[in-house]
Amino acid sequence: MRKLKFFEKVMFLANSVVAFILLLSYIVPLLSPKTFAAISVLGLGVPILILLNVLFFVYWLVKIKKQLLLSLFVLTIGYFIFGSLYKFSESKTVVDKNNISVMNYNVRLFNLYKWIPNEDVEENIVSFIKQEAPDVLALQEYHPRESTKLSFYKYKYEKLLGKNKKYGQAIFSNYPIVNSGSIEFPNTFNNAIYIDIVKSKDTIRIYNIHLQSLRIDPKLETLTTKESEKLFNGIGNTFKVQELQAELFLKHKSNSKYKSIICGDFNNTAFSYVYKQVKEEFKDTFKEAGNGFGRTYNFKFFPMRIDFIFTDPSFKINAFKTYDVEYSDHYPIMTKVSL
């Protein structure tokens, strides 16, 4: 520190703070939000903390200063715990006659309330789905008026909630559905649904989960200090609710005898407690076959991956893709898997 100039000392101090916060965030997946609500909020900021530490590392590398070791050390620990934030490898694509393609998409009510100033959003979503033609389609924030336009699917199960039962979750399938149901979450319009499909001689369970929404306004630059504190506390409370919902889901899943695929909008990142709890020993299809940041939510400040598809370890992950289509505040994701 003695050999550093004043500006460099300030930079290293900032570097130290950011590195410590990132290091602290690594324990978030291990801590129950019910007990550590404030710390659990850190999980949302892990992507930006990683990016900041990468920038500090590059800064000290250019300066040829040993201070680069601080961020390098913290980033290395994070890599072994979570893997890389950005996947540099190309998307994996394996052609297999036994492939099942599964798409997950939060369609935000097909733009029912005109959040996007475009009259063709509904038609664009349906055309996109028809073009990509997933064998199984899991939709969150589904609105039933579109059900007839998705009639190219042979089978479907939907669970509508909310006032007058106008919206909810749905799963469409080209494989026969032999069983279906809903896992109700208390005091909310969010829930989880499931179907059992038959492919050849195999019965496979498909889950579609929508955990409690964060309700973050993307225009965060307009927040006052008081509003920021309210937002922080609100996110902590939301994570507590998500933990309860995850527990209800896991209790249900533990009674299933079938190999499962879990789709959903978790409203939380891969650095969260609920992600770790729901994923358990399952495979994250993005980590197995995706590339890039894999962002699934249109949040302009940093890439957020809050939508996931997990598979039972028995599945081979043969492909994964995140689609950069802006018909919702979420981006659709699709994987191809085989037993």
Which fold does the CATH topology of the largest domain refer to? Answer: Deoxyribonuclease I, Chain A
Oligomer: single chain
Integer tally of domains = 2
Major sheet attributes: 6 strands, mixed
Strands across the major sheet, in which order? Answer: 3-4-2-1-12-11
* Content of β-strand: 15-25%
- Helicity range: 25-40%
pLDDT under 50 segments (min length 5)?
Answer: none
What is the terminal-to-terminal distance? 56 Å
How confident overall, as mean pLDDT? 91
Q: Strand-and-helix sequence, N→C? A: HHHHEHHEEEEEEHEHEHEEE
Bulk shape:
globular
Assign the CATH architecture of the largest domain. Answer: 4-Layer Sandwich
The helix-and-strand class reads alpha+beta
CATH class of the largest domain: Alpha Beta
* Radius of gyration using CA atoms only: 21 Å
Number of helices: 9
Instruction: Provide the CATH superfamily of the largest domain.
Output: Endonuclease/exonuclease/phosphatase
Number of strands: 12
Structural account:
- This protein is an alpha+beta fold.
- It is built from 9 helices and 12 strands.
- A 6-stranded mixed β-sheet has the order 3-4-2-1-12-11. A 6-stranded mixed β-sheet has the order 5-6-7-8-10-9.
- A hairpin with a 2-residue loop joins strand 6 (191-199) and strand 7 (202-210).
- The model has no long low-confidence stretch (mean pLDDT 91).
- Residues 104-330 form the Endonuclease/exonuclease/phosphatase domain.
- One of its GO terms (biological process) is GPI anchor biosynthetic process.
